Amino acid sequence: MSTPELRDGSSWTFDAFVVGCVFDGDGTCAFALGDGSLRLVDSQGTVKEVTPHNGACLSLVAHPKSGFVTGGDDGRLVHTSDEGASVELAKTRGKWIEQVAVAPDTGLIAYAAGKEAVILHGDERASFAHGTTVAGLAFDPKGRRLAAAHYDGVSLWWAKASNQGAKVMKWKGSHLGVTWSPDGRFLVSTMQENALHGWRMEDAADMRMTGYPAKVKSWAWDRRGKFMFTSGAPRVIGWPFAGRSGPMDKEPREIGPQRDALITVVAASPRRDAIAAGMSDGTVWIEHLDDPGTEYVALKGEAISALAFSPDGKALALASESGFAALIPVG
Q: What CATH number does the domain located at 10-219+305-329 have?
């Protein structure tokens, strides 16, 4: 099957690298750019440009209620509404804000600046110090506990407890990102080496997931929480997390076509058993897991840097390192 340059939908070419894209709960899509700006695309396809940062956008997430939260190399954490109004939530001196996490159920927002992780809840602020730089953040599914990835492990903090010490999940090496399984039973980190490391929360049992030819920089959980899909290989790697032992002593599932390129970013549909993948050669495809068959979406020639499904699963946002961006309807 030939791959189209762009199957259908709307597309734009922006003037900077696209750092990330995400939909908020109202269905507005935001593209964050390396020049500090956002492009907001509403349900009618209208594009609005706003510039919340005096420098590059480094992180982008959907706000727990509406709109978007971004961190930048100007040391600012900003909430931008769907209408384009921006409000500064926090500011650091001389530090970038590269890591941001939100907890939809509790409304908490967390960010990392250097060795410090900070949780915001309205006007309240709680800070947590670490011995090394915080490289990844994630709230547990209930939004009550924050995981902070750093060198030699991941620290766990209760979001609303005072005078606490961190519970540290230890493993030698540099941990760059962190995610919880949707049921909260497993914690997984991405490593500086070409591997993942995980812990079973009930007993802190270690899990090693290796064999990647490149670093894992993107992951996505399927809608039932049974598989964790990852980048870092020529095909999407899906690790099984059903059952008490998760991926322990189990082989991963390899998904999608075999191409002479690496998967750079993945996204899972919230409504269907489908996984989307962007590749280093600009290919974007969707695999429907319950009816195997690859649906090619785009081939742009430059590495895909961002992917996101809409909350209803009916649209896929994609973007590349050159500033190309698109919204594609999903059948």
A: 2.130.10.10
